[in-house]
Each structure stands twice: as C-alpha cells, then as structure tokens.
From TrEMBL:
Keywords: GTP-binding, Hydrolase, Nucleotide-binding. The keyword Nucleotide-binding applies. GO terms for biological process: riboflavin biosynthetic process. PANTHER family: PTHR47259, URACIL-REGULATED PROTEIN 1. CDD domains: GTP_cyclohydro2. It comes from the Bacteria. Transmembrane segments: none annotated. This is GTP cyclohydrolase II. Residues 1-28 are annotated as: Disordered. Its EC number is 3.5.4.25. It comes from Teichococcus coralli. One of its GO terms (molecular function) is GTP cyclohydrolase II activity.
Length: 410
C-alpha cells in the first residue's frame, strides 16, 4: 500500500504545541534544540531541513532506494576537534540570527533528548586539517613567510581548524536586520522559492527556517582557544565564493589572490600569537549565481568600447537587476559566534563588508588592501571600478582612467 503523504502546512490537530525554542537564551536547555529532521513532523520546530541544497540529493538517495528515510546518524567521535565557545553573543538574540550558536554541540548539550529518541542534528562541525597552497610556498620563497614548525611547517603545510556552518535563520531577527516585518519576509521567501515552503506563510508558530542555500566554512589559524579573550589579536578576511578564480585561477577578478593574501595575513597573525580567521561564504557571483555572472562577463567584453571600469557595475545591473545580492547584513553573525569583538587587521577593501561589521559592534583597528603586484592581468577593470565606487583605497581613479578599456576581449 502506498505510504500517505503528510502535509505539514498546518499544525496537526491535537498534537500539542511544537517543542519550545527561545532564541537567544544563554542556556542551551532554556533555548531548546532546533529540530529540523523529517521523520516526526509533530516534533519539528523549524521550517526546511538540514544540509541546505544538498537535501535534494538526500531525496534522490531515498527515492532510488540507497538511503533509508529513517536512518539515524551515529555521532560517536564526531565531537568538535577543538572547543569553541560559548561566548557572550550566544545569549543575545539580536547578535546572532542566521546560525545556531549551539549547532556544533548538539550531541553534547542535547544528549538527554537524543537518548530519549529525538532526532536532532548538528548544523555546525569543527575539525582540524593541514592545507597547502602554492601562494603560501611562494610567499616562503620570497621571504615574506617563514616556517615556525607550529602554524607553518617547512614543507609549506599550514595547520588549520575548519568549521562548516549551515544557515539557521531566526526569522524575526533576520526581518529586523533588513528593517521589514516578519510577515513580509515570510511571504517573499515563500513566493521567490516557487512556494517551496508553505509553512513560511501558514505556520507562524514555526519561527526558525533552514534555507536551502549554501552556508560557510571558517578556517582558523593559530590557537582557537584564544578567541573571545580581549588581549587576543585577530586578523580576518570575509571571502565570498568565486569558483572560477578561487579554484580554477581564472584571471578576470581578484578573488583568489585576495584570498591567498588573506591567508598570508592570517598565518602572520597566528605566528605573532594571535588568531587568523578566514570566513568563506557560499555566495557565488555576488550571490547572483554563476550563470548570471558569466552572462555579465560576456556583456562587459562585448559592449562598445570594450571592458572598462566606468561600465562595470552597470553591466551587472542590466542583466541581474541589481549590482549585488550578497546582503552583508547577516555576515557579522559568524564573527560574534567566534567571540570576536575587535578585528586588528581586516583584509578587505570593501565598505559593504566594513560597515556592517562596525555597525554590529565589532571594532576594526586596521584595514589591509591587496598589494598591487598580486592583481591579475584581466582584473584591472574590477579593481578600478571598485575603487571608484568607494572601496577603501589611497588613490581613487579619475573619470579618464575609468574610461580606458583594460579588460581582455572575448
Ligand atoms: Zn572572482
């Protein structure tokens, strides 16, 4: 007999209230677990589910008979490789609205609930690794970095702590960040996903949403245990994903060189006894997606007069309708989650990143621009356009400079 489909768009009559969730409570028991698993709809207190867009692959695995829908993870030995938190901001419902501060500690702080049979999943995982990048070994050869045997090894290996974070949105808090009502936010999330999550508009009792988008990865350099202490110096780069440059070395933008420069600054900071922090956000092509991004590249290179900085942002707007959809409003959350209250060296020129960090209450001591020698050949257009648009720089290019085509033709 076919299994009945259970609609979750309205509360089950007689099932009682959903498990309580007091967002921003400093005590994890008072806060309550985020329950976004699927086996028992009556126990869910969140909309959406874990793993972001990968939930669709899980559907394929179940549909094709390769995964049991009722599989429960065995969390043995999965606990964080280094302790992180708790920090003061975890108990502030306004400071963190887009991730679950207890997400990596689920098997620990909700052990009793798990033992009682509740299906609760971590939304954060913390591990350790070595990374090796050609830019780091080049910096060693050029004499800018020297191995210390702890952070940086003689073969160019860098010891890091890696943290994977899924988005968990507290809808009232996200709405407040954008200055809109929770009702408006819910309606647009529902409509713009093609009605993917009816509970957004039918279940005001569910106030947490796990959106089907990419999250972020944090790379920590130095001793993470030093985070949250006022004397600890911090170097930080907030990097938004650019697959073409970050992974494949495509030279139309400055992304990978800037990421590598940020990593170099993080290694230096760790060697000086501080902590380096790289936040890698899955926001491809200014969160417009890679298809839109490549369409814009073509429009830039085919326009009359060639690829030039004065037309850089307009070409994006012609195709996408906006210049940027990364919405840095939610970005500082991860810094508060890490206990950061001051960034001593922010490796970024972007005012779109600088302003929300400072407005969220984190002090920035120094901003570090990318050295000119690291800017790739075809990326001059992007760099000049950003400087003219108010990016942090010592020399703003004038109109005549911006009108010169500096990009390669198709
Ligand atoms: Zn890029």
């Amino acid at each position: 007999m076919p299994r009945p489909i259970i609609l979750t768009s309205h509360p089950n009559r007689g099932a009682g209230a959903v498990p309580p969730l007091n967002w921003g409570a400093a005590d994890p028991q008072q806060r309550g677990p985020v329950i976004a698993t699927l086996q028992n709809p009556a126990t869910r207190n969140a909309i959406g589910t874990h793993a972001g867009s990968y939930a669709l692959y899980r559907a394929l695995a179940v549909a094709s008979g390769q995964l049991r829908a009722d599989h429960r993870p065995d969390f043995s030995n999965t606990r964080p490789a280094v302790p992180l938190g708790p920090f003061g901001a975890w108990g502030d419902p306004a400071k963190i609205v887009s991730l679950d501060p207890w997400g990596h500690l689920v098997p620990e702080v909700y052990a009793a609930e798990l033992a009682a049979g509740q299906d609760i999943r971590p939304s954060i995982a913390v591990t350790r690794a070595h990374m090796n990048m050609p830019e780091v070994t080049q910096a060693m050869r050029a004499g800018r970095l020297a191995p210390d045997g702890e952070v940086l090894l003689p073969n160019g290996d860098v010891r890091v702590t890696k943290v994977a974070i899924e988005p968990v949105w507290w809808l009232p808090g996200v709405a407040a960040r954008f200055g809109i009502t929770e009702t408006e936010l819910r309606r647009h999330l529902f409509e713009q996903t093609g009605g993917m999550f009816p509970e957004l508009v039918t279940r005001p009792d569910l106030r947490v949403f796990l959106p089907p988008i990419g999250g972020m990865t944090v790379y920590l350099f130095g001793e993470p245990e030093k985070l949250g202490k006022p004397e600890t110096q911090v170097a930080c780069r907030i990097h938004d994903e650019c697959n073409g440059s970050d992974v494949f070395g495509s030279d139309i933008c400055t992304c990978r060189p800037y990421l590598a420069h940020g990593i170099e600054a993080c290694i230096e900071m760790a060697q000086e006894g501080g902590v380096g922090v790289i936040v890698y956000n899955r926001k491809e092509g200014r969160a417009l997606g890679e298809v839109t991004k490549f369409l814009v590249y073509n429009a830039r290179k085919r326009q009359e007069g060639g690829d030039r900085a004065e037309q850089y942002f307009q070409r994006t707007e012609c195709v996408a309708g906006v210049q940027d959809m990364r919405f840095q409003e939610l970005m500082p959350d991860v810094l508060h989650w890490l206990g950061i209250t001051r960034i001593d060296r922010l490796v970024s020129m972007s005012n779109m990143k600088f302003a929300p960090i400072v407005e969220s209450g984190i002090a920035v001591v120094a901003r570090i621009p990318i050295p000119d020698g690291l800017i790739p050949a075809d990326a001059r257009v992007e760099m000049d356009a950003k400087k003219a648009a108010g990016y942090f720089t010592e020399a703003v290019p004038d109109a005549a400079e911006l009108a010169i085509a500096k990009g390669r033709a198709l």
